[in-house]
Amino acid sequence: MASFKLRGLGMALAAGTAFALMPQATAADWQPRKPVEFIIMAGTGGGADQIARLMQGLIQKNDLSPMPFIPINKAGGSGAEALRYIQDKAGDDHTLLVTLNSFYTTPLVQEGLGVDITKFTPIARMAIDTFLLWVPADSEISDFQTWGAEVAKANKDFKVGGTGIGQEDSILFAMLEAEFGADVTYIPFPGGGDVAKSLVGKHIVSTVNNPAEQMEFWRAKQSLPLVQFTDERMESFADVPTAKELGHDLVYYMQRSINGPPGMSPEAQEWYVDLFQKLFESQEWQDFCKSDGLTCDEFVGGAELATFHNNQLERHKALIDKVGAAAITSD
To answer: Which UniProt keywords apply (predicted)?
Structure first.
């Protein structure tokens, strides 16, 4: 698998911005006393949902927790429902959030939400996910340059789809619009699974699905990847060029991380960090990452994850400033 470089993600932390870091404490005497709510800030069938349910199954299979993890989808408002739910669970040691990049973008574009993710409890970054540009397998568009020419010509008649509004898919399409001087019609869906099905059903012309969301259709030769938005080609898509190779500086990744509510106890935080590190290092997890095009070569937890989140929050502020909030929130 290609090495993970993420050029430009090491942006300096904004002055005064700091995650609420928990002090070191022993987790020897702490463990869940009741089932753990495993909140997914996206709909069913998408990448976040698939990953959360895989993790839940591996935790149970490998007896990593004395209490079950219960996956619960809260996709409303492009993840706003889940974020508000977690913030309102302050001090709860039995609730976790499975995140994607809407962890950063939704509070930024929905200013009245009243959610401050810098107060959440960082647990574990489990993977860095990637994006590809997809069309139906029998599309007349078969390469990225043709796609760019067609989208610029068609404008609003060119219908694309993604997960939610103001989330990572709409940001990436806004970047593509700026690159090609286009103005597409963006149709939001509740989850990546719905987006993938709508593409092969030809209700939309193109998507930027994560590999896991399109993998089933790609293997069935129903969808075609035109380009990948990575620094280097992924091993699982060795024949697909990167946008950078083709002269377009378009690189974008998505984090898959676990976070707790504000005010989680230090003992609980440490216990969860240890659990997810064991899960990360398991052969099952590493095999999944390899087969589904995720980068899982470094575990990041606790304070290090807080720093990563701060950098990414600033990165997404800059992206939104560059393409304009209206470009990623309009449909």
So the answer is: Signal
DSSP letters along 51-71, please?
A: HHHHHHHHHHHTT--SS-EEE
**99 DSSP β-pair partners:** 257
Residues 6+ apart with CB under 8 A from 90: 261, 262, 263
What is the pTM for the complete model shown? 0.78
Distances (CA, A) of 130 to 105, 148, 238: 17, 20, 14
Q: What is the 3-state secondary structure (H, E, C) of 98-111?
A: EECCHHHHHHHHCH
Q: Residue 258, SS3?
A: strand
- Residue ranges and CATH numbers for the domains of the chain are 36-129+253-329 (3.40.190.150), 132-237 (3.40.190.10)
The 10s digit of each residue's pLDDT in 32-58 is 999 999 999 988 888 889 999 999 999
pLDDT tens digit sequence for 296-322: 989 999 999 999 999 999 988 888 877
Q: Are 189 and 72 in contact (CB under 8 A)?
A: no
Q: Where are the beta strands (DSSP E) in the chain?
A: 36-40, 69-73, 95-99, 121-129, 132-136, 159-163, 185-189, 206-207, 223-228, 254-260, 300-301
Q: How far apart are CA 116 and CA 131, in angstroms?
A: 27
186: which 2 tokens?
């963006």
Spatial separation of the C-alpha atoms in residues 278 and 257, rounded to whole Å: 15
**Which residues fall within 8 angstroms of residue 146, CB to CB, at 6 or more apart?**
none
Strand bridging mode 95-99 / 36-40: parallel
